[in-house]
Structure formats: structure tokens, C-alpha cells
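Progress report, Aim 2. The chain analyzed during this reporting quarter is listed below.
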Amino acid sequence: MNVGGWMTATMPIVMQIGLKIVGAIILYIIGRWLITVAVGLTSRVLTARNFDPTLQRYLANILGVVLNVVLVVAILGYFGVETTSFAALLAGVGLAVGAAWSGLLSNFAAGAFLIIFRPYKVGDYVIVAGGVEGTITEIGLFNTTLLSPDNVAVIVGNAKVSGDTIRNFSAHAYRRVERTAQLAFGVDPLDAIARLKAALAAIPNVAVDPPPAVEILDFNQRGILLAVRPYCHTDHYWQVYFDTNKLIAATFGTAGYPPPFVVEELRNGGRYPSVSGAPIGGSDVAGQMATNREH
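Predicted C-alpha cells for the chain:
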């Protein structure tokens, strides 16, 4: 076997293949650099025009995917691969992948609709997907990422988000804090309401307009139940919530209100709630024994 002749014949082919490989690597490096520059430039232009941060990331991700596909097709064309056949092959693979990854594609489509209709944006505090609660940190191509109140990152598929109820607590300038205050029988509710309204206005971050609301909500076995409702921005919700609890306890303690309790009557082994010894239900039976139970 003529080794020298074989090497002489194959050397040009090896050199041609080697040069193509080196050229493809250079083309890939330059292409990736250009893609990075194009995506970065697009993001800066969108930022300068005050586009929504979520929309910026979404468009940048789509542009990056499209340009990477173009780069792969260009490299294949450089190696002499028929790009039209590759396009047909890519379309066939796309159909197969679409059937296999229908869930991912539904998340992608849902993400597009979330961007267009914008039921929430990055930074909003929401409840989505049947109870997932937190602050939106990112709306991706397929998922939405939230930061829960206990500092846990929660990732939810966009299809699940768009297919369920969305509660956006940041859509308006303020939200209402729902608390209640129980009064014992004999306490003047108007006096308690006046004390609470004056005290609520002094809690930090409580909105002035609308003003805090304190009203009689219901009547129960312990006495009168008040609804205590200050308003605040979503960012201060839990601070106002806990401060309101402390304020109710401090205000009622300073006023010297007695603690609410339930009075029960034991009749023939059965319990019948009553108020100040007056039975609420049941018939009079001899040998009654009244027992007070404080709460």
C-alpha cells in the first residue's frame, strides 16, 4: 500500500474539512457575540422608551431564540447542508415536538396573552392558580415566578395562571385590612368606635383617604362584634394588620373594658347559652345550675 500517495490524496480533503470546522467555530463565536449585542441593544432601547420590564424580557427572549435558530441554519449552510430540506425537517420535528410538548406550548401561548393583556406586572402582589400568593418577580416564556411572604420562590406554569382566577392586590393605590374587635355585654359600642377611630389614624402607613372604618358588624353570645377596617398600600399590609391587632388590645385595656365571656346554663345535662342569666333557648326546668365560662 502506497502510504505516501494516500496521504497526498487525503491531505487536501482533511485540510478543507479542518478549515470548514475552524470557520464554523469562528462563525459560531461571532454569531453568538452579535446575538448578545443585538439582545442587549434591544433591551436598552426598550428601557429608554419606558417599556414594561416584563415585556422587555419577553421580547429579548424571543429575539434570542430566533437569532440562535438563524445562526444554526447559517452554520449548516456553510457546511453545504441544503437549508430548504433542513427547513422541512425542522417543520416536521416542530410538529412532533409540539404534540409531545403540548403543555409547554400552552404555557408559552398563555405567557404571550399575559404579556398582551397584562393582568399583573413584575412587582405586583397577587394570588394566582387557586391560592399561590406572593410578589411577581418574573414572567418568563413558560412560567411565572413569585416570591411568597415567607421568602420562598414559587414557579407556576403560565397556562395554570391564565386559566384560573387572578387576584391582583397592587392594581389600586390601597387595600382594606379586615379585623374585628369583640366587646363584652354592657360596653358602649359608640364609645369603643370613637376610641378606635382616633387611634387607628395614628398607625404608620394607614391611608387618610379613605379614612379607617369602625362599625358594628354583628351580635353574638359574647356581646357586640365590631368591624375594624383601616386602609393602606399593599406593601404595608402586614405591618398595619399586626399594628391594628395591638392597637385594639391596648385601646380596650386602657378604657378598662371587661373581657367578653359566654354564660351557659346546664339544664338536665344539656347546655343552653344565655346572656346575664336570661336563657336564649330551651324550656324552664326545675333545678337549674348556672355556670359562667370566661374566654
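The mean pLDDT is 81. The radius of gyration is 35 Å. These observations will guide the mutagenesis work planned for the next reporting period.
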